[in-house]
Design brief:
- This protein has a single domain, classed as XisI-like (TATA-Binding Protein).
- A 5-stranded mixed β-sheet has the order 1-2-3-4-5.
- The protein is built from 3 helices and 5 strands.
- By secondary structure, it is α+β, with helices and mostly antiparallel strands.
- A hairpin with a 2-residue loop joins strand 3 and strand 4.
Length: 108
Amino acid sequence: MDTNTVYRNIVKQVIQKYASFRPSHGEIRLDTVFDDTQNRYALMQVGWERGRRVRGNLIYVTIQDGKVWVEYDGMETGITQDLINRGIPETDIILAFLPQSQAVKTGY
């Protein structure tokens, strides 16, 4: 199995883990969005809380040039350690939400 396929599977497993959690408040559903053609993976929240509409990304990850780019990570503890624990080397994880000098400097 090539690296992109392995990374795709790991990213999807991590996102599915978070999708199985249920928000403790409001009527919010968590939707996974997986695009294997363009290597784009997301966890979205959609619903209502206290009469207000809730929607948006909780996680957004892309895979490009053999690296996993964490574009957005709205989880309390972050998903990076989950990705590492499942087999993606730290050197192949880019924290794209940080300025490039910090993302590269941290080894992610």
